[in-house]
């Protein structure tokens, strides 16, 4: 290979003239001084980049970043201090941070820093089109690699507009990666097209964005946790308010439901389409929330049922683009995404809730909260109808039947699809509506499974409402927390803060297991629920696992009762969880079924499938109690590793 004299080339990283160890077809080499692969620049007179940092300056920059990330701050403060640090240390005036949301398929500009405050305010107000303006950003995010590009190479008109506004000729894009997934993007604007200093910017920034990714993710999780807490409070308050105040005032009840829904997810348009059976007119309740000016407008409209027939025929929760629906345009609904929630009341009335966001989409945790609240709203709407039309006895019986049906939809409808495992779940409420709860929650990556069983104090509708709310909380928490104990602690905080002053306080016992489906390891915590059984197939023996903890909702602080234990499950092993409705079931002689009898029944049918084990135990329990009235909910869960 022909080499040019050493004084003819300079390394742009260390500014030393060196002969390369080997030139590739892309013009790259390994500098003998800094031992890094870099781009050579051919010059008779070496030109050192005006922004090259010394080793001491690089060290100070890294230490400043570590100090920044070790502190606790909100998202806005984090963005401001990080971009200011880059501006000061690297002498870069125009720095932007984007956040990516893979669930919603969007990239959002969250902060733009510039010494020109008028320019900073103007850029921060720009709403970029995801499909058109983000081509280079999406490519960098997808590859997980930095990208430097010239605006003159881009054909979309946005780049010409942005260049005139900011004076930008080229841009460096660096993906912010957490666990190999892009959580954001960092961009640096340059006022020259061939800007050699971007190489050093890229090198030093790649060293710090990894740590920044951790802080950014933690800040986003904290914001999400705050939103979930607000949702839980809204669910609780709305359920109590609707149940107590609006049964005899239908229109006010609907307006309160819409107001609560719009507050849970900050939707701009929240509508209820209500079409009674066998009528030609449909009533539409509208609520518009001006999120910028904090104003709320409500109105009611009557439309011909035939004109909105397709919406009324919907049977499942649906996501729509409102601009694609002429019916929505005629109703004044506009925005980026609409959620449709149809329900049919017992009297045949068709109701459709329509929630629309103007500038964003609905994430999964918000959709789950909406589903939970609409279930509560449906109970209230049914109760309102019953209040108007039925006698006291008929109304109560019908209320229980409706609540029982809705509660049954909250329990697992089928076993999770986890290869190598078999599941069984079983609940028989004592009064139509139960306070017992069990669930299987499989992680999105299908590597972990949360299993829980719990028992709310009391019975009937009140206990069922608590159970439904706790289910919503649990499904949200397992997405952001790994520790069973931390999840139980958050549920305790909710129960205590919301029921401490209630006429009838509500408590709940629970066992929560986090099962690693890859390693077979089980991490579990207890909250005053008692024992569960572990059958060891290898030794044909049964272990009684004693859980600890304290019943949730009694104390404001339960950290002193913290407990987390591990179990190892082998092939053929089976666990059985149960509530006290099983062991404390009484026969006609007032004798309890008891743990010894339950253990014996469990072992006698251990060769059956888990769901069949539960059926056999329940059959033996019914034979034991005979005609004696059931006084408590009966719930069991069985899981086997195949």
Question: Could you describe the 3D structure shown?
Answer:
InterPro entries: Bact_Sigma-Reg, GAF, GAF-like_dom_sf, PPM-type-like_dom_sf, PPM-type_phosphatase-like_dom. This is Serine/threonine protein phosphatase. Residues 74-226 form the GAF domain. One of its GO terms (molecular function) is phosphatase activity. It comes from Leptospira bourretii. The protein has four domains: 7-43, no CATH class; 55-224, Beta-Lactamase, CATH 3.30.450; 245-388, Beta-Lactamase; 411-641, PPM-type phosphatase domain (Phosphatase 2c, domain 1). The protein has 642 residues and is α+β, with helices and mostly antiparallel strands. The protein starts with 8 loop residues before the first strand and ends with a strand. Strand 4 and strand 5 (106-113) form a beta hairpin. Residues 1-8, 24-28 and 38-50 have low confidence and may be disordered. The relative contact order is 0.06. It has 17 helices and 24 strands. 38% of the residues lie in helices and 26% in strands. The strands form five sheets. Strands 11-10-9-14-13-12 form a six-stranded antiparallel β-sheet, covered by helices on one side.
Which terms would index this structure?
single chain; Beta-Lactamase; globular; 4 domains; alpha+beta; 24 strands; disordered N terminus; 38% helix; six-stranded antiparallel sheet; 642 residues; five-stranded antiparallel sheet
